[in-house]
Amino acid sequence: MPKLICIIEMDKEKGLILTTEDKDGKILQTVKMDGEAITLEVKGDSATSTIVQKQDSVTVTCKSFVLKAETIEVTSTKASSWKSDDTFSLESAKAFTVTTKDELTQKAAKDATISSDKAVTLKAAKKFSVEGDDIQVEAKSGAVALKAPSIKAEGQKDVALEGAQVKVTAKAKLALKADGVAELKGGMVNVG
User: Fold this and answer.
1) Per-residue pLDDT tens for 112-131?
2) Burial 62-76 (b: 16+ CB within 10 A, else e)
3) How far are the Cα atoms of 153, 161, 169, 176 from residue 164, in angstroms, in the given order?
4) How far apart are CA 30 and CA 64, in angstroms?
């Protein structure tokens, strides 16, 4: 066990200062109470950690911060922010919920991926928009279904439908129209 140097200072201007120094381990521990704040500081060769408590704030500055508990609840009555200058990770062993009573914005400067080992559902009570330079919809085994009171497909250049079998069925009226040339070709064509 190393020998520690312990100092207690009491000053009417500086307040109360408790100091413990381990010269062998090169660690200095300080507690300062100056009438405005309580400052806890542990200083070593490679890093320094500090906790400053004032009447309206608590500030923790350190190289590594670890919080372990059975349950954790964090509540803010005003704005909250969480920022990382490196990788940011959130993980849950059970259900994970993100809820807001106002707008929700998610933005990535690079690729963004949403994936699930089971189903994914995207739902909007009003307008739903998908936009991109190149959009691909693919079903690996089942069908792709589009269902709406009205469906409109429009291409700035062309629209192509291709498959082993292509069926167009109208329960009421079917209109095929071309402002230019209309062609109907097949190995066998049945009309009627």
Assistant:
1) 999 999 999 999 999 999 99
2) eeeeeeeeeeeeeee
3) 21, 10, 16, 21
4) 19
- Tokens at 83, concatenated: 């920022």
Question: 163: which 2 tokens?
Answer: 């498959």
SS3 87: coil
Place of tokens 């009171």: 149
Residue with tokens 């500081």: 41
User: Position 143: which residue type?
Assistant: A
In the numeric block, the tokens 């990382």 are attached to 84
Tokens describing residue 161:
């439908």
Per-residue model confidence as pLDDT tens digits over 21-73: 998 889 999 999 999 999 999 999 999 999 999 999 999 999 999 999 999 99
CA-derived radius of gyration, the chain? 34
Q: How far apart are CA 49 and CA 41, in angstroms?
A: 6
User: How far is C-alpha 118 from the chain's CA centre?
Assistant: 20
